[in-house]
Amino acid sequence: MKILMIGDVFGRVGRDMLFEYSERGFFGADAVIANIENAAHGRGVTKNVYDEISKTGIDAFTLGNHVWNCPDIVNVFRYNDNIIRPYNLEGDLPGSGTTVIKAKNGVRIGVINLLGRVNVQPYSTNPFLAADKAIESLKSKCDIITVDFHAEATSEKQAMGYYLDGRVSVVAGTHTHVQTADEKILAKGTGYITDLGMTGPAVSVLGMDKNIILDSFIKGYSKRFEPATGNGQFNAAMFEIDETSGKCTAVERINMNL
Ligand SMILES: [Fe+2]
Ligand SMILES: [Fe+2]
């Protein structure tokens, strides 16, 4: 079976790209998981944005450090169980860090969202130990498990891949908005990529208007950051999984421009 994991969806352009590739059947995926932490104007997710994106038929949504940027995310969590926030946030907070979805072929996929601790806010607990707990809590409820590890440091993400190798089907990194070319199958059968990249404005600095960001770097001041407009890019990876063994048999990195 094929699981498509889509990198950080950024603003209007990113949402339009989801509809574009939804109409094309998401490359024949049996299940689709998207990180939508930047879907609402580059920061967080509102109820309206969640409702809009839900029409694409995407099965599950993950988030990241921007989880609390739009306060009504709390209502999205209250009424929907296919959108999750990082599992390892400290404290008793709204939302869940795991969910189980059913793929087109009936396979139950456990989805875990984790947040790194190197150069990422808000403060989270140890993601490695949290991963152990999350896997344990899902084991009896699903057939295979995928992990979205939302982290800045490539080292932390590579380490997580090795830590979870053989225990989950996929470890896909998100957050940097720059796709890495290191998709692979690890020794014990886990499909891995350090970062899925960004689905959003192609000509931008990590999704934001490049001229505003240039001002901030060159002059030291700028207008408020605004999402870029123009052509879109679609960044994702397709993981082919043998659902009986849970092992990944192929990974294909996807980087499309429209
Ligand atoms: Fe992001
Ligand atoms: Fe992020």
Please explain how this structure is put together.
It is a single chain. By secondary structure, the chain is of the alpha/beta class. The chain has one domain (2-257): Metallo-dependent phosphatases (Purple Acid Phosphatase, chain A, domain 2, 4-Layer Sandwich), CATH 3.60.21.10. 23% of the residues lie in helices and 28% in strands. It has six helices and 13 strands. The protein has helices spanning 11-23, 47-54, 73-79, 127-138, 154-164, 210-218, and strands at residues 2-6, 8-9, 31-35, 60-62, 98-102, 108-115, 144-150, 170-174, 184-185, 191-193, 198-201, 232-242, 247-257. The strands form two sheets. Strands 1, 2, 3, 4, 11, 12 and 13 form a seven-stranded mixed β-sheet that branches. It has a six-stranded mixed β-sheet with strand order 5-6-7-8-10-9, with helices on one face. Strand 7 (144-150), helix 5 and strand 8 (170-174) form a beta-alpha-beta unit. The longest helix has 13 residues, at 11-23. The chain is globular and about 55 Å long. The protein starts with a strand and ends with a strand. The mean pLDDT is 97. Bound molecules: fe (ii) ion (2 copies). Residues 8, 37-38, 64, 175, 177 line the site of one fe (ii) ion. One fe (ii) ion is lined by residues 37, 64-66, 150, 175.
